[in-house]
Design brief:
By secondary structure, this protein is an alpha/beta fold. It is built from 10 helices and 20 strands. It comes from Raoultella planticola (Klebsiella planticola).
Length: about 350
């Protein structure tokens, strides 16, 4: 967002897939047979692009309201046979897990929230799209009902689990920049307090007000986290780029309590490492790491550590988690890179904080 606002990046043409549109270009993601939910990312593309082309499978009578993308932003509308399969939305980033290890991590994360000092009436949360992060929402339901605590809002990518809590009266409002499953998309169409927001409203530090600045608790995932709590969500254990970061670094910096959930090992590859391959979110933004082998608290948050120890939780130093990971897996062979830079990591304020280099063949 900041690079677009500053003019450093320019979008010549934005091709935006939408389930339905009228002939003027009023479009939304909540109606049509390929309903996908929030168009929070497309809103920003439509705002900044020199030309906007909508790809839609369904032309409906004017005016198609409510509209996420408005007619004065759109240059062309192209009708296509299909814009995609909404049933596959939750196959990617978001998925419901039955994996015992991920459920264990999710339960630990919910316990951390409960005893952190931020679990109180009117708290706010973001629980992310990873399997353990999504499962954590389910465990939070039990704690909220037992204690009578209701959340003021949930933010970010919205899942069916968050919708369930909203419809049970445990979360007052959902601020949705991206629907992570069909249940969330359907909720956006029918629930007046499930509100679509753009990524600018969600987490842009250059906007007049970013919603993430109101967050109490955020649960985020990681491909790697190092002993300084720096997080990598960009490159895999082979050094190849695996996905986008979304609002990871924005939410981590803004929330009062940022929890990373990750297994100690993935397929014999350590998740806790000496130094991350690619630094996306600086360690000073991460407060707690929850793994299946223990919970590490950033030394910068001694009050959180004290509360969790008082609650009887298994608190360990992150160096001990790293040592445990290496004892189980051995030290992985270093990835060999060329000098060619194939990606640049820009922090939320525009600074370059890392680069991605080409993996040597």
């Amino acid at each position: 967002m900041k690079l677009l606002q500053d003019g450093e990046l320019n979008i010549d043409v934005a091709f935006l897939g939408v389930p339905c549109s009228d002939e003027f270009g009023n479009a939304n993601g909540t109606h049509g047979r390929s309903c996908c939910g929030s168009l929070g990312y497309a809103m920003v593309d439509a705002h900044f692009a020199r030309r906007v082309v909508l790809l839609t499978e369904e032309l409906v009578p004017f005016p198609n309201m409510p509209a996420s993308l408005m007619q004065d932003q759109v240059d062309y509308i192209v009708q296509v046979d299909s814009v995609g399969d909404p049933a596959k939305i939750s196959v990617g980033a978001a998925r419901v897990t039955s994996n015992p290890r991920e459920l264990m991590i999710a339960r630990y994360a919910a316990d951390v929230i409960e005893h952190s000092g931020y679990f109180r009436a009117g708290f706010s949360m973001q629980t992310g799209s990873g399997a353990a992060a999504t499962a954590c929402t389910r465990f939070m339901e039990e704690k909220m009902e037992r204690s009578g605590v209701k959340a003021r809002f949930a933010l970010g990518g919205i899942t069916g689990s968050l919708v369930d809590l909203h419809e049970k009266g445990l979360i007052e409002k959902l601020l949705d920049t991206q629907c992570f499953d069909g249940q969330a998309a359907a909720s956006l169409a029918r629930n007046p307090n499930h509100v679509e927001i753009s990524t600018n409203v969600y987490a842009n530090p250059g906007s007049k007000a970013a919603s993430c600045d109101q967050l109490d608790v955020a649960i985020l995932s990681a491909l790697e986290i190092d002993v300084d709590f720096n997080v990598n969500v960009i490159t895999g254990s082979d050094g190849v780029m695996r996905g986008a970061s979304g609002g990871h670094c924005d939410v981590a910096a803004a929330a009062n309590l940022t929890i990373v959930v990750a297994p100690l090992l993935r397929s014999r590859i350590p998740t806790v490492v000496k130094r991350v391959t690619t630094r996306l979110t600086p360690g000073e933004s991460i407060d707690v790491l929850v793994t299946d082998h223990g919970i590490a608290v950033n030394p910068a948050r001694p009050e959180i550590r004290a509360r969790l120890i008082a609650a009887g939780m298994n608190i360990v130093d992150i160096d001990a988690l790293y040592a445990r990971a290496i004892s189980l897996s051995g030290i992985p062979k270093p990835i060999e890179f060329t000098d060619k830079i194939v990606g640049v990591i820009r922090y939320r304020d525009g600074r370059v904080i890392d680069t991605v280099r080409q993996v040597k063949e």
